[in-house]
Every structure is written in structure tokens, then in C-alpha cells.
Amino acid sequence: MACRLATLLPALGHSSTLPAAAAHSAKLICSKPFSGLAPLRSVVQSAAGAPPRTQQQQQILAVRVAGCRAMASSTDSLPDVSNLTIDVSAGPKKALISLSDKKDLDVLAKGLSELGYTLVSTGGTASALEKAGFEVTRVEQLTSFPEMLDGRVKTLHPAVHGGILARRDLSKHMDSLEEHGIGTIDVVVVNLYPFYSTVTAPGGCDFDKGVENIDIGGPSMIRAAAKNHKDVLVVVDPEDYSAMLANLRGEGTEESNETFRRRLAWKAFQHCASYDTIVAEWFWRQTVGMDSWSPPPSMSVPLSLKQVLRYGENPHQNAAFYVDNSLAEVKAGGIATSIQHHGKEMSYNNYLDADAAWNCVCEFTIPTCVVVKHTNPCGVASSESDLLEAYRLAVRADPVSAFGGIVAFNVEVDEALAREIREFRSPTDGQTRMFYEIVVAPKFTPEGLEVLKGKSKTLRILETEPSKRGRRSLRQVAGGWLLQEADDLTPDDIDFEVVTNKVPTLEQVEDAKFAWLCVKHVKSNAIVFAKNNKMLGMGSGQPNRVKSLQIALEKAGPESKGAAVASDAFFPFAWNDAVEDACKAGVAVIAQPGGSMRDQDAIDCCNKYGVAMLFTKLKATKDKALEVIGSRTRDYTRHVSEDQEAKDEDTSTEHAQPIVLKFCAGLYYE
User: pLDDT tens-digit profile of 201-223?
Assistant: First the structure.
């Protein structure tokens, strides 16, 4: 028992200071108003009836009795306590309540009072209980020590933690309580200072205010009660009040008393762990800077269960979906915080596909439709003036893949668009209505929503906030996690370097930019053909780039002539390979990261066929070691021998000097 309370000892805990502490306690407590001491009747008895006590016991009791006498002297309505002492073996069980979130406090207090529990409380919770008409024992009355340091110290006292941590099945623990004049506490209902809402409030808060909203006493009581859950019920969630009261009444439930207590203890520890995780994240961001890319030496991620899924990626796998409660995700938008207006519950694959569609469509600044199948965009089209036609073009890019896919828009879906989604026939036969798993958009008009609901009972309709830039990306590997910055690059962040004799026109550059935005979201090896703000075809996920190009070319068909091609990584070969295949198909411009030791072959091939080629570039920042970075922000190291470098230098004068095109408001200049 002593080791459980070793650090929870104020100055009055030392026997040599007890006489002075008694006088100090009486003086301070007398100066603080109390609304009533009726609950003290349950914890005191006549000194004549008390068992013999040691000198140390008498000294400890003297402190607490001094507090009682001081408080009693402030009111005429209390009984004479001049001859009273404290008896820890008598009185009803106690429930300690300290809440920031006071939801259903009256229900909790009524239930506990009816079960005969003495309500012990602090500060605002005690005042709320008294205002509601409940008798309350304030913590100061248990400890005979006042709240101090502007509320920083209220419950950090052996009279509180001893009563929580004492094991009832160990006689030495109970004897220790008896020796020190401490009563047991049997129920602890606590939730914590609103740190999360304070630091995420509009406009934020300064550092000192954030620090003052870090709870200390609350987590200490919660952890103590959870550790001793066999004897103490701990509740941190108002949703558990009814179940706890039922358990105390002995009403039967599906789980045993032991399992119930363990579940509440787990919830208590998790509550504290999530709280501490958010505090630690906030402190790290305050230390290194809110916008700094500086991975912490260790980190935790606070997750809360949103949905138990029917199955995982495959029917034989169990699965669940969690929401990330990190500060970095506050008001960050995205599929996890979507409002589902209609349809079947989301599945594991639904979440993956919807996320891919939403991340892609949010990249575009003009009204756009994206169709996704198995996390790959199979159709993309944009239009400033005719979103209905953009939707049709997105589907026509690959109608076979679009059937059963996810449709995403970056603008509001009104009645006209909703009707087109509902009635549009598959381009493959002109008769079959297109079927979709999900429609996701930032907003739906009431009329549009009703029309879409009429398409299918199972169609999932998601209203989703746009995803913000600058968030982090976590990905699990066996035994670890990969952390990286989100890929927020847009064409405005890229210098497109013309490396061929042919310089693209403004329209061709715009096509290349559009293709580049699309290919960014296609699984590697990724190739996209695009023209006039629409995807013509894409090839994805192939082990070699030439096969991806062939697939994209097949889907684009005759429209590939004069189109732009974007590749998510460099072309390792050109002649009789992907680059030459694209050139032979009549494309106008090819955009790629560059970085291959055979880049010159690709340039020579394009020069032969009169095709423009653009290299994408991003200047190195901070610790980035290389200048050339691909469309997925990859670093490429050129492993070129000295002889090859010399050869490149010797022949470089035969080719046109690079031209860097910069884009601003749709214009470009050299």
C-alpha cells in the first residue's frame, strides 16, 4: 500500500509537521465556503466508541478533525463535532465524480444516490450536483486539505488515491487505511479537461492556455481505478452510466461482472492513452513548428472505431474501420468523415475505392468527374460549362471498368446531374443503365439527393469535405510503418523542362498537365493518354512500362493521335519500346520525370518522330539530395559510369538546349 501512494503525499503527511498542518488546514478550509456537511455524518462517530489508535493515527486524525471543526464553525446548522473522530470502517460506499463533460450527470447522481452511495466531487461538478439538489461531499472534506495552485492540486492526496488503490482482499491494505484514517472509494467517474477542443478551437490557443488544459489529477484517478478494477468501477464515458448502474444493482447482463469491470478498465486506459497521444502530438508541433516536416522519434496515433465491417479485402477476413483523431486530421476532410445519406453500409473495398476517387477529384480546380475501379481512375473529365458532358466523357473513357465503380465530383450534385447519373446508359450497348457502388461529392441539393436515392436501394451516397493539403501518409509493412508527406504536388509546383527540338503548344502543355494529374493517381507502372481535359485511356499496375502503355493506347484508340502521354516514372528504354510505340501512335507530347541513364535515347526517339518531350522537375529542398524528382516525388539516382557521362557530354551539343516552361494562370513563357 505504501508503494502505491509513495508520491501522493502533501507536506502534512509527515508526522513531524502534523500539528502545524492541522492548524494550517483548519485555517484554510474555514476560509472556503461549503454548502453543507451532512455527508460527514456517515464518516464520523463518537470518540468514545472508536477503537484504540496509535499516536500516529491520532495525529493524522487530528488534522482531519481540525478541518471538520473549522468547517463546522462556519454554519449553525451542523451538529457539534467537537468530540467526533473519523471511523473508516463505517459509512456507505463512496462514488467520486469529476467531470468536464457533464452529460447525463443528473441520471448518474440519481442512480448512485438511490443505491446508497455518498457522492464525492470537486469544483464545478460538485457545484452542479448541489445545484441539482444532491448532497455532496467535497474532496476537501475527505482530505482536510484545500484545493490549491489554481486548481492544479485537488485530488492528488492519499485520502483519495489510498481509497481508490487499496485492495479489499489484502488485510494489510485495509489495515493501512484504518491506520491512516482513510475510507474506500468504490466508484470513480471521471473525464478529462477539454484539451482537444481547446487546442483545435477556431483561431487556436496560445501555448500557456494549452498547457493549463492538460489534466493531471483526472488521469491519475482514472488509472488508479482501472488498475484496481476488481474493487473499483471506473467510468469515463457517459454512454456507460446505464450499464454501470445496472451492474451495481446486480441486474443480469450477457457478460460476467469480471468481464464488465475489465472492459471498463480497458476503456479507461485507452481514454488516457488517446488523451496523452494528442497532448504529445501538440507538444511536438509546438516544439518543431506547426508546418515542419520533422518526424518525431516515437509516435502514437489515436484511433476510434467507426464501423465493424462485414468482411475485409476478401470475404474470409475480418475487418473494421477507424477514424484518425490526430490533431493533424482536424478539419482535414476526406472519406473517413463522410456523411452517408443512403445505401448499404460501406465495405473495406468501398472505403479504399472511395478514398482513391475522392483524392483524385480533389486535385482538380475546375468542375470534374472521376470514375474509379479498384482504386484506379479509369475515367476523368473536366468542364467549366457542362458537367453533365464531363460525366459522360469520364464514363466513356472505359465504360466496362466504370460499371460497378465509384463516381466522384468536386462540385455540388444538383437534380439535373443526379438524373443523368441515374438514367445514363452504358456506351457499350446503349441500353443498360450504368451501375455504381458509390457516388461521392462535397454537396448534394435536396432534389438531387432524392433523385439519386431512386437509382438503387444499395447505392451509397457520400457527402464529403474536400481533403486539405499538407497531411501525412502512413502505410503499414510487416513489423513497421512508413511515414511520408502527402503528395500534394500540382502542375503549378512543377517546372516542365522541354528537352526535345519540338516545343509543345499551349494546348498540348495543358493536355500534359491534365494527364500528369491523372497519372499521379494511377497505380505504377502507370501511363495516361489525355486530351482536351479528358482521359482517353490508362494502363496501370503492370510489371513493365511498355505493357502499361500498350493497354492505355488500346483504350485511347484513334483519339491517341495528337494526345498527351504522362508516365509516373522514367522510361528505361525508348527504341522498339514504350516511347517509340507512343510516337508511332501519333501523340503530340510526352511528360515523364526523367532520370534514366537512357534519357537521351528517349529524346532522340521523340526528335525523330517530331514529338515534344517534357521532363518534370522539383527543386531540392531541405535534406533532399537530388534535384530531379518524379511525378510521385520519388528520388532517382542516375547510375552512370564515367565513360557514359563523358559520352553524354561529348554529344550534348548536338541537341537543342533545354527550355524550362513555367505556368501561371494558364500562360507559359520561356
Answer: 888 788 888 888 888 888 888 98
- pTM of the predicted structure, to 2 decimals: 0.76
Of all residues in the chain, the percent with pLDDT exceeding 90 is 47
Residues forming the active site: 227, 374
- Helical packing angle, 105-114 and 241-249, nearest 10°: 0
Confirm whether 94-288 and 337-463 share one CATH topology.
Answer: no
Q: Structurally, what CATH architecture does the domain formed by 491-615 represent?
A: 3-Layer(aba) Sandwich (3.40)
Are the C-beta atoms of 428 and 397 separated by less than 8 Å? Answer: no
Strand, helix or coil for residue 125 = helix
pLDDT band at residue 167 under the 50/70/90 scheme: confident
Angle in degrees, CA 301, 306, 312, rounded to 5: 90
496 sits in which H/E element: strand 495-498
Question: Which of 480, 502, 515 lies closest to 591 in space, CA to CA?
Answer: 515
Task: Classify domain 337-463 at the CATH topology level.
Answer: Cytidine Deaminase; domain 2 (3.40.140)
- The x, y and z cell numbers of residue 359, run together, are 483524392
What 3-state class would DSSP assign to 473?
strand
Domain ranges in the chain are 94-288, 337-463, 491-615
DSSP 602-670: HHHHHHHHT-EEEEEE----TT---S-B-TT--B------HHHHHHHHHHGGGSPPPEEEEEETTEEE-
pLDDT digits (tens, 9 = 90+) for 634-663: 333 333 333 433 334 333 334 444 454 443
The C-alpha cell that represents 615 in the structure block: 521532363
The per-type count for the chain, helices as H runs and strands as E runs, is 22, 25
CATH T-level topology, domain 94-288: Rossmann fold (3.40.50)
Burial class (CB in 10 A: 0-12, 13-18, 19+), 610: exposed
- What distance in Å separates the CA atoms of residue 317 and residue 312, rounded to the nearest whole number? 5
Question: Closest Cα to residue 512, out of 528, 525, 489?
Answer: 528
Rounded CA-CA distance 75/298 in Å is 55
Whether 28 shows a pLDDT value over 70: the answer reads no
Helix (H) or strand (E) holding 26: helix 18-30
Cα Rg, the chain, nearest whole Å: 35
In angstroms, the CA 318 to CA 328 distance is 28
- Judge whether 515 and 565 are in contact, CB under 8 Å: yes
The number of CA neighbours under 13 Å toward the Cβ of 11 is 9
